[in-house]
Amino acid sequence: MANFDLIHDLLKPGTSKIVLLVLDGLGGLPRQSDSKTELEAARTPTMDRLAREGTLGMTIPLGPGLTPGSGPAHLSLFGYDPIARPVGRGVLEAIGVGLEVRRGDVAARGNFCTLDEQGRITDRRAARIPTEQAAPIVQRLSGIRLEGASAEVRHVREHRFALVLRGPGLDASLEDTDPQATGVPPLPVRASDPAAERSAKLVSEWTAKASELLRGEKTANGLTLRGFSTDPALPRFPEIFGVRAGCVAVYPMYRGVAALVGMTVIDVAGESPQDEFTAAGRIWTDYDFLFIHLKKPDSRGEDGDFEAKAAAIEEIDRALPSLLELEPDVLAITGDHSTPSQMRSHSWHPVPLLLWAPKTARRDSQQTFGEGACASGGLGNLPATDLMPLLLAHAGRLEKYGA
Amino acid sequence: MANFDLIHDLLKPGTSKIVLLVLDGLGGLPRQSDSKTELEAARTPTMDRLAREGTLGMTIPLGPGLTPGSGPAHLSLFGYDPIARPVGRGVLEAIGVGLEVRRGDVAARGNFCTLDEQGRITDRRAARIPTEQAAPIVQRLSGIRLEGASAEVRHVREHRFALVLRGPGLDASLEDTDPQATGVPPLPVRASDPAAERSAKLVSEWTAKASELLRGEKTANGLTLRGFSTDPALPRFPEIFGVRAGCVAVYPMYRGVAALVGMTVIDVAGESPQDEFTAAGRIWTDYDFLFIHLKKPDSRGEDGDFEAKAAAIEEIDRALPSLLELEPDVLAITGDHSTPSQMRSHSWHPVPLLLWAPKTARRDSQQTFGEGACASGGLGNLPATDLMPLLLAHAGRLEKYGA
């Protein structure tokens, strides 16, 4: 894990520009036909040139064998050990759908469930009610008003929603109301700390009003809440690393995580890689560090579509020259985690890393950007949390330690 | 970090000989013309043969992106985590110019500064007064006598000097007198711990007498002191690792750091690699472990002279057979840090490592000693602090752990 105090002590000012380009779910697995991964099968002349000029390696998001969710995977890339500094599930669910979570707010993950006539849970996920049926129900819940606090609710997908309470004197030390079993009713809202008594009362009140509104429903006639948490007050990225840090991302989750660590979130017109690079160019002079997030490789990986994931990577490669025209001093291209299309899900596999810094990067013998080349690359396998100090060093922003 | 207690528990006696050959600043960056580093461009037939017979890798001095000073870099190679066990800046400055620092001594870094008529600092570095002007001034200060303590002072270069106070009841818990600003006078000497009151008084007295002696100077008419510290009482290298340990080095800094951890410092007649290997041969039977330090690759790297750094490495390679004739059982060739001639300074880049142990080293497929080969070497990237246990193991000096 990056030693924040040490890094902060060693900072020196600079005018260099760092870009962390994250291709979500970049890492893959080889296909049968020719043993190439999605990245290796993709035609990526620009990334291959950068690979020849720079150094390759692999980032390990959490640790060997550990598959990260999107939140922890990004925190790790930003230098925060997501195991030592966990962010609550409620917070991640809320920011993942674009809800803001401030310090002192209470965020929770909500599940619709099915209750029998005695109020006992018969299905903890309300038969995974389709999104198009669930969304209007959530819309109804957004009308609930409380005394002394505001309540925001937003649909996630199927039976899932996020809830954020805001008001004075709140505390997130609340126990889950999901009993993790059927045949029993949802648990009452209980404070695990006396400081959260008032919050418990408010959440109970919200739950009671919501239950009223769900009374007529067939499947989604009940709900449970889990993962109560608040903004974990992480050390601020711009302060730790001494950079004006901007986030160029389209999806709420990534904008949310960036905001959580104190990056400024930039507006993007459109959703394509080119649109994001154009947004980066627009604000280029105002930032020292840009985190640019590209979602599509992960989405196509989760679809299980090898060809589409490779095509998504090719689309990024075609747009890349416009980013390079901005002349970053240090560019890292990597993923937050692997999403092999064969697995249709995130995985624990190390993630290809390309470090390009014309003045200070060593060259290894690798000629292309791909899993095989990265596994033999000059940087070796490194914890994702080690990336930030490396980028700062290449950007000339760290002093020598000791005489 | 090496677990000293564990290593010590596992020690077994032996007659094997270990040599740690440190080519200061060994690591480099590729030049434009043919993408070769200094080490790769150098003709090193002997090191290349050892590379074929041994295993290559990279040592990481402090951590990703962290550039070490000479002191921390060597402590790390000796197995001591220099961040967890910091050595004070005053101590490093003093031993760097050959002053001895014993437990309880107070060492400090001194700067000449320029004061205006009101005694306010106008230049914190006395216009970087040339060494030939500053040295005689330091000489004058060496005449200062104190009651109850001795004071040794030695010039470093330009405006810098080192001061060591020795006597009963001293304590280094003193605050810097450098206000890190101009327009204000130097700060008085203040104890940060009551135990250091007496030391504060003595240093004040020394400062007052020094100020008298500087009165006539134009630029160096004042001084500040920083980094007050004492011998950190590090665990003794010969005890931790169970070896009679000798240091063969010419420059004061490296002799000083070796002495600090309890190595015996050997006298060397001359300054060339051959002179050092000859000195090693002379005391060969008396030691189990020799740290041999060769300075020139770093000096030429700091000069920014690629060819001269490569030539310095070639000179070492030519002398190497005379070291091999002594028949070490284990030989590690590495650097304390990288000093790419393009950067003219220390850097954070991992450092080439060659581990040669004819009986126990695995062979990898590498054919030459260079950054590219080491990045693909069988040992991978390893923290420099992991090197000592590896050398002991190859020397047959560590028992099995557990039944």
Could you explain how this protein is built, in words?
The structure is a homodimer of 403-residue chains. Chain A has 403 residues and is an alpha/beta fold. The first copy, chain A, has helices at 4-10, 38-41, 45-53, 70-77, 89-96, 131-141, 197-214, 237-241, 252-260, 273-282, 296-302, 306-324, 371-375, 387-394, and strands at 18-23, 55-60, 106-115, 121-123, 150-157, 160-166, 222-229, 245-248, 264-266, 289-294, 330-334, 351-356, 381-383. In chain A, strand 8, helix 9 and strand 9 form a beta-alpha-beta unit. In chain A, helix 4 crosses helix 9. The interface between A and B is medium-sized, with 30 and 39 residues.
Quick structural summary:
By secondary structure, the first copy, chain A, is of the alpha/beta class. Chain A is 32% helix and 19% strand. In chain A, α11 (296-302) runs antiparallel to α12.
Separate helix tally of chain A: 14
Supply Rg of chain A: 23 Å
Count of DSSP E strands of chain A?
13
Structural class of chain A: alpha/beta
Write the layout of secondary structure elements.
2 copies of one chain form a homodimer.
Chain A: H1 4-10, E1 18-23, H2 38-41, H3 45-53, E2 55-60, H4 70-77, H5 89-96, E3 106-115, E4 121-123, H6 131-141, E5 150-157, E6 160-166, H7 197-214, E7 222-229, H8 237-241, E8 245-248, H9 252-260, E9 264-266, H10 273-282, E10 289-294, H11 296-302, H12 306-324, E11 330-334, E12 351-356, H13 371-375, E13 381-383, H14 387-394
Parallel strand pairs in A: 1-10, 1-11, 2-13, 8-9, 8-10
Antiparallel strand pairs in A: 2-12, 3-4, 3-6, 3-7, 5-6, 11-12
